[in-house]
Amino acid sequence: MLTADIEYYQPKSLNEAIDLFFQLKHVNKQPLYYSGGTEIITFRRLNLIQTGAIIDIKNIPECKIFELNDHFLITGASISLTYLEEKNFFPLLSKTSRGVADFTARNKITLGGNICGQIFYREAVLPFLLADSNVILAGYDGVKSLPIHMVFNQTLNLNEGQFLVQLQTEESYLSLPHYAIKKRQQWDTGYPLITIATLKKDGQLRIAFSGLCPFPFRSLEVEKELNNRQLPIDERIMNAIKYLPGPILNDVEGSKEYRLFVLRNTLKDIFRELEGE
Amino acid sequence: MAFLPLNKISVNLDINDEIYQAEIRPFSTLLSILRLELGLTGSKPGCLNGDCGACTIIMDGLPYKSCIILAVEAAGRKITTIEGLKNAPIQTAFIENFAFQCGYCTPGFIMNCHALISKYQNPSKETIKEWLESNICRCTSYEEIEKAVLSVIHNEVESRKE
Ligand SMILES: Cc1cc2nc3c(=O)[nH]c(=O)nc-3n(C[C@H](O)[C@H](O)[C@H](O)COP(=O)(O)OP(=O)(O)OC[C@H]3O[C@@H](n4cnc5c(N)ncnc54)[C@H](O)[C@@H]3O)c2cc1C
Ligand code: FES
Ligand code: FES
């Protein structure tokens, strides 16, 4: 059934949101959780999504938190990207986030929307992949905390009616040496040719990518090759490229060959920055 | 194809220090309500995707693109549109610096610049660049727009010295 109009709900608690989701689903409203809403509004206008009801989770207290608590940084899914940049508890996250869209749009785009959205860059997830964060999910079976690597594989794998409430990051990761870089073919805003976020822990580089493949990722095989200090950097990069998950994007932002060329050079910049090599 | 009857909700919108009561469809954007229901046509429709910034308004002190906000989300918040600025220094600076040609992007740019100058007394070059990148000017008046912003900042800094 198509609805001529869309209903809007603003629950005040996690349970209320989940109850609403299943009630609305039951009456065939195809409900969607709504956070910043920028993607939902745009996709609905272009008829790319169908929904009869949106559940705005911005006013749920757990989703609005951004604070250090008991050696963990708790990052609510509904905080805007500019808010987390201004507070700057996690500098790598702030720097990566600053590359998304533009400042005014980031006043509205939220962390949860960026990570759960259909637009596949999801750049804000990269720092959390590197910091082995936990994700807090709410669903019909309650609230769960899971390692991000268990639930994020290209996208955040959610059960029906489940939503992202928070990300929890150990405080010790927040101040590690890091580097974030976004390369575009032109202009200073817009989608990436490649975005790379890097964190150095215990002398080892951790690296996550967006814009290279049609999903963001961190690959332990790629990291192993890049950290193989027995080999010269060019060789390490060549070996690492063999382990990239496919396909490499070949689109209007840049051809596959150009992306790989930029990747090689950018990895060298990262080595210079974090390894002094 | 079955269509449900239109459901409308009533919201109070605090715009330019006036309270407007509007009956809106929940999925109407703030831009469409401003222009089509309230007659505030200063905010311009451009891309409707959040890319161009022609529709920028100020909400609780920050710039937002009104094409990617639902009007219902703006209820209870303090909104300023271009109609709410009355000879603000940035408006004069735009005229003095010839910071527009066709003028279509101007209301959006002015709202963004006004929010910037209101938030920061003396913003860094990087901050100015980061904020201004949110708007597109087809006529490429970028240099003049930057000059206009810098002139307001300069005047504010000088007047504080006195
Ligand atoms: C102008 C513009 C430029 C952009 N540029 C970039 C860019 O450079 N890089 C980049 O990475 N992205 C970019 N994006 C994409 C943007 O980050 C995503 O579209 C993101 O979804 C928007 O966040 P939101 O909070 O508005 O999401 P919403 O529109 O609220 O939601 C998007 C989707 O995520 C789901 N969702 C939202 N929150 C949750 C949650 N907590 N739990 C479960 N599901 C949830 C919604 O149901 C919906 O399906 C850009 C978007 C715009 C408008
Ligand atoms: S019309 Fe809103 S950003 Fe272009
Ligand atoms: S003055 Fe014409 S678009 Fe900016």
TrEMBL record, chain A:
Cross-referenced SUPFAM superfamilies, in alphabetical order? CO dehydrogenase flavoprotein C-terminal domain-like (SSF55447), FAD-binding/transporter-associated domain-like (SSF56176)
What PROSITE patterns does the annotation carry?
FAD_PCMH (PS51387)
Q: What protein does this entry describe?
A: FAD binding domain-containing protein
Q: Where is the FAD-binding PCMH-type domain?
A: 1-176
Q: Entry's InterPro entries? A: CO_DH_flav_C, CO_DH_flav_C_dom_sf, Diverse_Substr_Oxidored, FAD-bd_PCMH, FAD-bd_PCMH-like_sf, FAD-bd_PCMH_sub1, FAD-bd_PCMH_sub2, Mopterin_DH_FAD-bd
> Which keywords does this chain's UniProt record carry?
FAD, Flavoprotein, Oxidoreductase
Q: PANTHER family per the record?
A: XANTHINE DEHYDROGENASE SUBUNIT C-RELATED
